[in-house]
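Input/output pair, single chain:
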Amino acid sequence: MKPGDKLFEKINEAIRDCKVGIAVFSPHYCQSYFCLHELSMIMECGKKVIPIFVDVKPSELRVINNGSCPAEELVRFKEAVEEAKHTVGLTFDSSNGDWSELVRNASRAVMMNMLEVEGDRVGQKQMYAKYC
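Output:
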């Protein structure tokens, strides 16, 4: 991105174009409008998402109405967080975890999911070609 670009336009475009999304949840993740917006976009676009829970358990994630967000946005955010909480992800405890191991595991998970998504896409194209 460069100065003058519309932030949400660029973020939304990148999410629509991605194959796999990664959400790195921290204890304060659900307090960030930007994080919640991006997570909602990933889910609404039907992208595969790999949640990484850093210093937080999935059950601890809560979207709280602090009065600064429209009601319809809160609904979107809560639905996205609930879906992510019920998605198999990676967990990490920063007080005694190995960051390089987390990066290796996350990279492996991304690659496996990308191959799966691409495999599905290739399979769909082959089926389309076969029957059309």
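The helical segments are 7-17, 33-44, 71-85, 99-131. The mean pLDDT is 88.
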